[in-house]
Q: What sequence folds into this?
């Protein structure tokens, strides 16, 4: 087993651990033992592979969700348009307020369709 295969195996173990109850999960020692006993990888190397795969796994888990980023951007746009409309109302600019509310309504409808 080469490094890539070992790291893929560790990644799969970490993903499988998510679905298991805490008492049924494989610990770092269990995974390293599997690598050393079943695949004849030296202990120090197995721990190093585990650390590399674990870091990669945590990094992938911390990546922001693209659909959440899009939703947050849409919410920010809608909030900005509504704030501007409200500022027009505060300045007694009713035509600006109605234009802002109309734009807000159109954007809200468009964002809901996507």
A:
């Amino acid at each position: 087993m080469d490094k890539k295969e070992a790291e893929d195996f560790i990644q799969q173990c970490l993903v499988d651990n998510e679905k298991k109850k805490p008492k049924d999960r494989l610990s770092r020692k269990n995974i390293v033992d599997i690598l050393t006993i079943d695949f004849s990888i030296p202990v120090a190397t197995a721990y190093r592979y585990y650390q590399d795969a674990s870091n990669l796994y945590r990094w992938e888990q911390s990546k922001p969700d693209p659909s959440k980023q899009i939703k947050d951007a849409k919410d920010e746009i809608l909030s900005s348009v509504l704030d501007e409309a409200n500022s027009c109302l505060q300045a007694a600019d009713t035509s600006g307020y109605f234009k802002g509310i109309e734009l807000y309504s159109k954007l809200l409808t468009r964002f809901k369709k996507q």
